[in-house]
């Protein structure tokens, strides 16, 4: 009986690993074909991709997701993201996120233990909706017709550029939030 359970556990673990690998591959393909994010793959030093981040809140909110970090297309580590937000918000949402690092200095800053994006960092939303961001670097707004037809414009800010693709849910918000990342290098 124990042997059968062990075999079943091994099969389930292998299936889960394969599904996770497909999640990363599928998410990278979406960003490689989603408007302005595609160009960043050609000129970035590295990137971190999160297939699914879950977010929810009612006045106080939070978000969490796990991702993988790549340098020149090769996986070099894992990363987790947590977010706490305060303000007018209600609902829940799932989205994918990618962070591009313009150079080695930006990558090194991100991967030196815990890293935080302040409320001044904004993401370009690649969705079939309109969005706006405001921060210490100024304000911007954009809209797109869909994931494969994005007309949003992204740019590096402090060596990083962030893009998101909404997967589902509905969330209304006017909040102050910051994202915290914890990087773990791959075992050698």
Describe this structure in words.
This protein has 188 residues and is of the alpha+beta class. It has one domain. It is built from 3 helices and 7 strands. The strands form 2 sheets. Strands 1, 2, 3, 4 and 7 form a 5-stranded mixed beta sheet that branches. Strands 5-6 form a two-stranded antiparallel sheet. The longest helix is centred in the N-terminal third of the chain and has 31 residues. The radius of gyration is 17 Å and the shape is globular. The N terminus is likely disordered.
Compact overview of the structure:
This protein is α+β, with helices and mostly antiparallel strands. It is built from 3 helices and 7 strands.
How is the secondary structure organized here?
Elements (H helix, E strand, L loop, with lengths): L1 H31 L4 H7 L2 E26 L2 E28 L2 H8 L2 E4 L6 E2 L4 E6 L2 E6 L16 E26 L3
Parallel strand pairs: 4-7
Antiparallel strand pairs: 1-2, 2-7, 3-7, 5-6
Tally of strands? 7
Number of domains: 1
Round the mean pLDDT to the nearest integer and report it. Answer: 75
Largest sheet: 5 strands, mixed
User: What portion of residues is helical?
Assistant: 10-25%
Low-confidence stretches at least 5 residues in length (pLDDT < 50)? Answer: 1-21, 128-152
Measured between the Cα atoms of the first and last residue, the distance is: 36 Å
Shape: globular
| Helix-strand sequence | HHEEHEEEEE
Instruction: Please state roughly what percent of the residues sit in beta strands, choosing from under 5%, 5-15%, 15-25%, 25-35%, 35-45% or over 45%.
Output: over 45%
Radius of gyration (CA) equals 17 Å
Q: Structural class per helix/strand content?
A: alpha+beta
Number of helices: 3
